Amino acid sequence: MPDTPHSILLAAVTVICIVGAITDLRSRRIPNWLTLGALPIGLIASGILGGWQGLFLAFAGMLLALLIYFPLYLLRAMGAGDAKLMAAIASFLGPLMWIHLFIFSSILGGVVAVLFTLAKGQFKTMLGKSMNILRSLAYFQAPYAADPDLDIRSAKRLRLPHGAVIALAWFVLLFLWESFGFRIVRY
């Protein structure tokens, strides 16, 4: 069981994930008031609850999230709200806990994407688009330049509410940590 400072940070992440999921499902957007509001709160709370080490971990988590998500945003594979949401969450979790969330949300996102495309009857199309992405990246080109449908802004693109996937991954992680007695640490 986490100690009280960790519990406060985990509770904050839970609230951020719930609000992010609801707004993403409703409007396909994650609002700036949530992400840009949560980010400084995460940094400040981590500093207050964990001292200089907590503040360092908050910054390290935030920078790691941005290091991974900002290139996806530049490639138009991910929205800016998704990148800001993960950076805000990482400011509460630190790099180690955040990387667990990133891995789980990536796996879960892949599973949901396959199920989503199967349900829409577009699985074969998705496989072709995946090959286009790999081909473009192999030639150091942005995938959306070769296929405009790969642009997150395209009206034709199937959009997966990544905020909801992040929230679901967070709840799976909390369940696993609690069920199997893993010690939740930020470093």
pLDDT < 50 runs, ≥5 residues = none
Mean pLDDT, rounded to whole units? 86
- Biggest beta sheet summary: none
User: What is Rg?
Assistant: 17 Å
Distance between the termini: 16 Å
Q: Number of DSSP strands? A: 0
Order of helices and strands: HHHHHH
The helix tally amounts to 6
The percent range for helix content is: over 70%
The helix/strand class is mainly alpha
The proportion of residues in beta strands is under 5%
Concise account of the structure shown:
The chain has 187 residues and is an all-alpha fold. It is built from six helices and no strands.
Question: Could you explain the architecture of this structure?
Answer:
Helix content is 78%, strand content 0%. The protein has helices at residues 4-27, 32-74, 80-119, 123-138, 143-146, 162-179. Helix 1 crosses helix 3 (80-119). It is globular, with a radius of gyration of 17 Å. The two termini are 16 Å apart.
Please write out the topology:
Layout: H1 4-27, H2 32-74, H3 80-119, H4 123-138, H5 143-146, H6 162-179
Quick tags:
187 residues; 6 helices; 78% helix
